[in-house]
Design brief:
Chain lengths: ~325, ~325
């Protein structure tokens, strides 16, 4: 029985880790992993017990060379017929209708889309104004809804934009409202620059609560730029959020967000959730096998702390 | 007005950072800083607004060469007559009565002592059985009490010992009780190996609470080995603890605790406390000047994340 007072008040049966490493983690790496290396990484992630994995991106290969061949990656993963894969959902980032069609053809189970609370950030990131990006995302959400494909929308620059500064929570709420109205399965509140803290994050979640939205509409995507990713995840738990994005070995970042460091590391998040009694079916040891593999493949260490406490298998 | 629900329930006017960098942070570094470099580091820490600084150690110079000349360090700091130094307390680690006398002669305002919940860890760390170490510490606490010198006792291996494994919370409570009975100003609950998490930490704090001990008797000394130091600090705040040890740039570790990584970084802790509205009189920018100085002096970067978000002054 836990002695953590706030933990008693949670009504979460368990929490969910949404693994973004094979997409968000790898997309800005200068070392490009082969299709087979990515298949092996995803295989190890599946074997660790994770159930939601973002496997790639259906953008033009010249825009993100590190993720070229994502269709082949997912096809090869599915062809392995891994026993645990039956319980997994495989997600891909899509920029437009063509990407949507290609992703579904390749066998992807869910689609990830991008918007931002900041117009300037949207412009810098996808080279088009927010109004236009929103219109396209709404159309894709409706297509996904019609075809019963689950959808996640990254709502970037949650509390801060590197170009516009502090983001008003009301702006986030208005955008979240539109996304929910257009059928988004999850709105992924994304702290792109690592400026979230328990206070500014709670301001957003309090407004969501006031709208009487179920916390199940939301996930948190946290960066550890200021060491607060796990503190913010706990704040999310207290407001009923149960899904958190994380990246194997803590890989990732954002080239359009100066100073942003890695994503919250999957191993670090899994360890905290495990200690809180909220992790189910995920093996930390098996996760470390995935982390060690991707670090070896990239020839570098990510910022995960818990991964360092596991000895590499020879 | 903060929207963090648990923050409303805190009755803390402010929190206190206890800076351990010039002692605990430097003691295991292979690069030895000169007396003047240590004086400059402490000067910058004073200028940042910190009020409690552990400046050195009065152990034999051949045991910890990095801290040789601690008496000279404190004398030189005091001779500078810095305006802010009047509001500071300067602490030193002492192993015995001779160290106690030397420290007070040099002008130290408070003394730091060591015990451990684990007998084996005590033996490995100070080369004597716990019973003998406790007897000496009790005698020193009584001497400090008689002379109205504030005292802090590091109660190490709070939840886990690298040699004995999991530590029963009752063991910690019994030892804390003896320390309080012998007049310790603060019992510093010390997570030597970074195994603390919100659940096992709360088990200890719940027992303290059940004893009706004031949380003011306690401070938390956290290591970030598994990325949980700030999460644990928040858990401490919820139980009324207001003082937290931290080390500039996140320097430090423990040679007797295999796998233990750096102390909680002062910059990271200060940033969180600032966001929670619990930091008073400490300048993050001035702290970064101290962090950059010590990193430059040691020729290496510490694990602090917030320090990386400040540009170095040329």
């Amino acid at each position: 029985m836990s002695s953590v007072q706030w933990l008693h008040q949670l009504r979460l049966p368990r929490s969910n880790i949404f693994e973004v490493g094979p997409r968000d983690g790898l997309q800005n790496e200068s070392t490009i992993l082969s299709v087979d290396a990515r298949v092996e990484l995803i295989t190890r992630l599946i074997e660790s017990g994770l159930r939601d994995i973002e496997v790639g991106s259906f953008v033009r290969a010249d825009r993100i060379p590190a993720l070229a061949g994502s269709g082949e990656v997912i096809k090869k993963v599915l062809a392995k017929n891994l026993p645990r894969a039956k319980d997994c959902r495989f997600w891909a980032f899509i920029p437009n209708q063509k990407g949507f069609d290609d992703a579904l053809d390749a066998g992807v189970s869910g689609v990830a889309l991008f918007v931002a609370a900041s117009d300037t950030f949207c412009q810098k990131n996808v080279n088009r104004p927010l109004a236009q990006q929103k219109a396209d995302v709404f159309a894709l959400l409706e297509a996904a809804h019609r075809q019963q494909v689950p959808s996640r929308v990254y709502l970037s620059t949650l509390v801060y934009c590197p170009y516009e500064g502090v983001i008003a929570p009301e702006k986030v709420i208005d955008l979240a409202s539109e996304l929910i109205d257009h059928g988004a399965t999850k709105v992924v509140l994304s702290d792109t620059t690592g400026h979230a803290d328990p206070v500014n994050l709670a301001r957003v979640l309090e407004l969501c609560d006031a709208k009487r939205w179920s916390p199940d509409h939301f996930a948190l995507h946290l960066h550890d730029t200021r060491g607060l990713a796990l503190v913010n995840a706990e704040e999310g738990l207290r407001w009923g959020i149960s899904e958190f994005d994380a990246s194997v070995a803590g890989l990732g970042g954002c080239p359009y967000a100066p100073g942003a460091s890695g994503n919250l590391a999957t191993e670090d998040l899994a360890n905290l959730l495990d200690k809180l009694g909220l992790l189910e079916g995920v093996s930390l040891k098996a996760l470390a096998r995935a982390g060690h593999f991707v670090e070896k493949s990239l020839g570098k260490r990510g910022p995960s702390k818990v991964l360092r406490t596991f000895a590499e298998e020879s």
